Amino acid sequence: MGFFDFIKDAGAKILGKGDDDQNVKKLIEDEKETMPIEDLQVKVQGDTVILKGKAKTAEDRVKAALIAGNVEGVTKVITDDLLADEDADLNETYYEIQKGDTLWRVADIYYNDGSRYKEIFEANREVIKDPDKIYPGQMIRIPNFTA
């Protein structure tokens, strides 16, 4: 895993409000109960966030990258130095929320079953707090999808 690309004008509006490194770090650490990362270090350089530390799983590393990338002003998250104890290749599918999308619609696109939106919500709890509140440009994971 090297980096993720994101939409610059979408996400939480926390940059430019104090210490950017600490603001992004706090967003990630607020999820430490479900996604612990030891010795987390965050460096914001322009529109890029660099994450370092040790995640418990490869999935936790991806979640941390999604949290950092879903910040307005961030277009790239580099995770080369965010190691994982269980460093499996996740073969994940990602989706960028479009204007007018709902999680039901996204589940219908990927699973041909809108009622499976709860799976998408559960897999993205770190970046989606309410399944009815998603926004264009938000990047999410699509779990258990096989083409």
Briefly summarize what is shown.
With 147 residues, the protein is an alpha+beta fold.
- Give the H and E element order: EHEEHEEHHE
What is the CATH architecture term of the largest domain? Answer: 2-Layer Sandwich
Principal-axes shape call: globular
- Please name the CATH topology of the largest domain: Alpha-Beta Plaits
What do these coordinates show?
This protein is of the alpha+beta class. The protein has two domains: 3-86, 2-Layer Sandwich (Alpha-Beta Plaits), CATH 3.30.70; 93-142, LysM domain (Membrane-bound Lytic Murein Transglycosylase D, Chain A). It is built from four helices and six strands, in the order βαββαββααβ. The strands form two sheets. Strands 1-4-3-2 form a four-stranded mixed β-sheet, with helices on one face. A two-stranded antiparallel sheet has the order 5-6. Strand 2 (37-45) and strand 3 form a beta hairpin. Helix 3 (103-111) crosses helix 4 (117-123). The radius of gyration is 15 Å and the shape is globular. The model has no long low-confidence stretch (mean pLDDT 87).
Secondary structure blueprint with pairings:
Blueprint: E1 3-5, H1 20-29, E2 37-45, E3 48-57, H2 58-69, E4 76-86, E5 93-96, H3 103-111, H4 117-123, E6 139-142
Parallel strand pairs: 3-4
Antiparallel strand pairs: 1-4, 2-3, 5-6
